[in-house]
Write a structure and sequence with these properties.
By secondary structure, chain A is an alpha/beta fold. Chain A is built from 15 helices and eight strands. In chain A, helix 10 links the parallel strand 4 and strand 5. Chain A starts with 9 loop residues before the first helix and ends with a helix. By secondary structure, chain B is α/β, with parallel strands linked by helices. Chain B folds into two domains: 87 residues, Methyltransferase, Methionine Synthase (B12-binding Domains), Chain A, domain 1; 128 residues, Cobalamin-binding domain (Rossmann fold), CATH 3.40.50.280. Helix content of chain B is 61%, strand content 11%. Chain B has a five-stranded parallel sheet with strand order 2-1-3-4-5, with helices on both faces. In chain B, helix 7 links the parallel strand 3 and strand 4. In chain B, helix 1 runs antiparallel to helix 4 and helix 6 runs parallel beside helix 7. The chains are: A alpha/beta, B alpha/beta. At the A-B interface, helix 8 and helix 13 of A face helix 4 and helix 8 of B.
């Protein structure tokens, strides 16, 4: 359901914002790459993670049908557990959303201290990701500002938590900070090697690195813990990406990070970066902390799943009207992954609200 | 037999070792309590449990976060491991404040929040039937019927697994309309809880027990009114 009246394509809209220019309309760039796209196109959710061709075609069709920005991506929130030597379970059954870690590669401080980062080329889901990006990098459609959205970038704390299990990491940052720091170093070592691998394969043109940070949210850790255990590692990784030649980074600040925002604001995000915020952070607060970056967000996914089309439309309209006032630029998205089972009528209402009210 | 002053010192030691998440100290003070004749029930309720309640308050006030609470829980359970056998040997029964079946619904393995909720209920004197994570939906119904628990607590952290909640609620209501159902987890909010037909919603582990107590009050008022 593209709006059909825009002078610019979704690709041009995003690139205009990244060039610090105003697009004709707010772009729609939802987190709908995984479950929603496969459910919408009639394939099992697990296909989003382990069938690259099916996953790519599902994302491509979904973004086309609803008039959205398309940035092909394959990854999962529990990334790191399998890649550093553990085991995962693919999503199955009626209510599962994503792969989950069955066995973490480390369980004790000694495990952490002796862990070696495996070869990234064969680590966990990476070969599947490569197959996916090999497909996506072959074409650049007019709704694609980037045709490779590199998963596994600036989520150092979350990846560390996935290696050990978040509860162990939480305990170690109090009782064994040296172990926690070592785990974070291992996470960054893996991210660095992965980044070098992706750059070798796909370059920096048409590529945007993406990282998500749910585990460092204030629902779990304090702002002081974020400052000591998350910020330095995310900063190191983002600096590395910028030094590698990536101009823009995409950071999904997942969950309630309000007390962390002053620290997030000190982390380099690119020129400009794309700051994806969850519904727990106010749009204008995010814009205040990131005046030179593009803010992406942040309607509550629960409304999209459980609301009526009228409620979804009203929530998106309000978000878009607020977002248009952000000087540094704004892209519409739900505050987190699009609920895979969200009713299509609600999705249509979401897009329609942007088509109706997103014009500058 | 410890003097009143020494008993106070031991109880403070137990309280502080839990609040300050010093697991070794909790073990040490629990052993001291038994060696010096402090009633293990008193040591548990007025020492260890009070320390955990104080930690819960610190969490609600954002002085503590999940890492501190997890460490407090380790200290709590380390102390309880020493004191519980002595309580059981004494034959003394604690007053049970209520009972709850708890679990993370099918399709979801995120259980940190559920485990904290479990601990807060235990500290508050509730009997907890913990079903764990990724719990098949019928299991909640079976366990509620088996235990006759007054409350069922459902947790979900994902938008797919939250869809299991109304299914469980319908199944529970069909078997026992009076059971009170409490929801928690990141994608849930009061509006969703109401829409799904739950009786209550707990935003954090710290508020879950108060919410459950309120549900029981309403239940008892309804029973008195019948």
């Amino acid at each position: 359901m593209p709006d059909g009246k825009g002078a610019m394509t979704e690709r041009e809209r995003v690139l205009a914002l990244l060039d610090r220019k105003k697009p004709d309309r707010v772009p729609i760039w939802p987190f709908a790459y995984q479950g929603f796209a496969t459910v919408y196109t009639g394939t099992p959710i697990s296909d989003a993670y382990n069938k690259p061709r099916v996953a790519y075609e599902a994302q491509k069709k979904t973004c086309h049908d609803f008039g959205w920005v398309f940035t092909p991506m394959l990854g999962y929130a529990a990334y790191g557990g399998w890649e550093l030597g553990g085991e995962i379970k693919w999503p199955s059954g009626e209510f599962a959303q994503a792969p989950t870690v069955l066995k973490h590669p480390v369980e004790t401080p000694d495990d952490v201290m002796s862990l070696k980062v495996p070869d990234v080329k064969t680590a966990g889901i990476v070969p599947i990701m490569k197959e996916f990006y090999d497909i996506s990098s072959k074409e650049l459609l007019d709704n694609e500002p980037f045709n490779v959205m590199q998963f596994g970038a600036n989520g150092s704390f979350t990846i560390a938590g996935n290696i050990s299990g978040p509860d162990r990491l939480c305990k170690w940052i109090i009782k064994k900070p040296d172990v926690a720091h070592r785990l974070l170093q291992l996470a960054n070592e893996h991210i660095s090697k992965l980044a070098a691998y992706w750059k070798e394969l796909y370059g920096v043109e048409n590529v945007i690195p993406l990282g998500g940070e749910p585990t460092s949210a204030n629902q779990l850790i304090s702002p002081n813990m974020f400052k000591e255990f998350a910020m330095p590692y995310i900063t190191e990784i983002n600096k590395m990406f910028i030094d590698m030649g990536y101009r823009h980074l995409y950071a999904h600040i997942c969950g309630e990070h309000n007390a962390n925002m002053e620290y997030w604001a000190q982390i380099p995000m690119g020129d400009p970066g794309i700051i994806s915020i969850a519904q727990e952070v106010e749009l204008f607060d995010a814009a205040r902390y990131f005046p030179n970056d593009v803010i992406l967000g942040n309607v509550n996914p629960a409304i999209i799943q459980t609301g009526t089309p009228e409620e979804v439309y009203a929530a998106v309209k309000k978000n878009v009207e607020d977002g248009k006032k952000i000087e540094g630029g704004y892209i519409f998205s739900p505050g987190c992954e699009m609920p895979p089972m969200a009713p299509v009528e609600n999705i249509k209402a979401m897009s329609q609200a942007v088509f109706d009210h997103g014009w500058y | 037999m410890a003097t009143e002053e020494r008993t106070k010192e031991i109880l403070k030691g137990l309280h502080d070792s839990v609040y300050e998440f010093e697991e070794d100290d909790a073990v040490k003070w629990a052993k001291t309590a038994l060696e010096e004749g402090v009633d293990p029930f008193v040591a548990t309720m007025e020492g260890i449990a009070e320390g955990m309640i104080a930690a819960g308050e610190a969490y609600n006030e954002k002085k503590y976060f999940v890492p501190e609470l997890l460490m407090c829980a380790d200290a709590l359970y380390a102390g309880l491991d020493i004191l519980k056998p002595a309580i059981e040997a004494s034959g003394r029964q604690a007053e049970v404040k209520g009972s709850i079946v708890l679990g993370v619904v099918e399709g979801d393995v995120h259980d940190i929040g559920k485990n904290l909720v479990k601990m807060m209920f235990e500290v508050a004197g509730w009997t907890v039937y913990d079903l764990g994570k990724d719990v098949p939906l019928d299991k909640f119904v079976e366990e509620q019927i088996k235990t006759d628990a007054e409350v069922v607590g459902l947790s979900a952290l994902m938008t797919t697994s939250m869809l299991a909640m109304p299914v469980v609620i319908e199944k529970l209501r069909a078997k026992n309309p009076k059971v009170r159902i409490l929801l928690g987890g990141a994608p849930v909010n009061p509006e969703v809880a109401e829409k799904y037909g739950a009786d209550g919603y707990a935003k954090t582990a710290g508020t879950a027990v108060d919410e459950a107590i309120n549900l029981l009050k309403v239940l008892k008022e309804e029973e008195l009114g019948e």
